Amino acid sequence: MARTVRSRRPADMNKVKARVTSKMKRASELARNQNILIYGEPGSGKTRIAASAPNPLIIDINDQGQDSVRRDYDPMYYPVERWSEITDVYWYLQEGDHDFESVAVDHVTNMQNLALAFVIGDEAARDASRDPDMPSRQAWGKANQLMKTQIINFRNLPLNTIFLAHVRANEVEGEDDELQVKLTAEVSPGSQKVLTGAVGTIGYLAKREVFIKSSKTKTRRREIRRRLYFADSERYVSKDRNFVFGEYIDAPDLTEMLALIYNDGGKNG
Questions:
Q1: Above 90 in pLDDT, residue 72?
Q2: Which of 89, 100, 166, 214 has the smallest number of Cβ neighbours within 10 A?
Q3: Cα–Cα distance, 130 to 39 (Å, whole number)
Q4: DSSP letter at 8?
């Protein structure tokens, strides 16, 4: 049996106590920044929700969803074409010489594709015989590591960070060994644990078509409504670490959601 080695006691415990005490704060005194993951089908309204955050910068990774927000929200956009630009914009935001209160990664599904393309390009440059359309297991591992680093980087920014993603249906084992379908963000399994663990709120966004009857004209009009789901479910991955959103929110607005988290007002669906 191996002998347990105890840590050596520091010579100057007063300095240690002072360092530790100086960093201790109550939860209510910490920065009021939220990290949120919203996933859904293309066209479900993810970019519009991101644009509703307080003073956001939208990092557009080949999504080009600006048409849905240019007329009303008109947020600042940063179009990403190369992996190095993600690092550039991270350091720009980290330095703090700006007025942004929120940043949205639109979206992490394309961000992963960009990371993989970067790794494959690097491998192809070193080995001309390698098929660039067939990523190796090692390439996937490198891409996942790049993703993990940037997910944590953006999570740690002193801003509200919103990660957007497409939806993917995973097969999971249910009761009696039956396979069930569960909806989640479309990223590789290697990145998904880091992404879902990095955020305090995960919402599944669904778009519904409804018909509103008019009692006066006896006609019906078609209306598209959006609902963001947070309740525990066997059908989709969700999280509400603040315990304020209930089962879902209709017509979600991130500024109102943040106000709800901090008891500053807002509406609950």
A1: no
A2: 214
A3: 34
A4: P
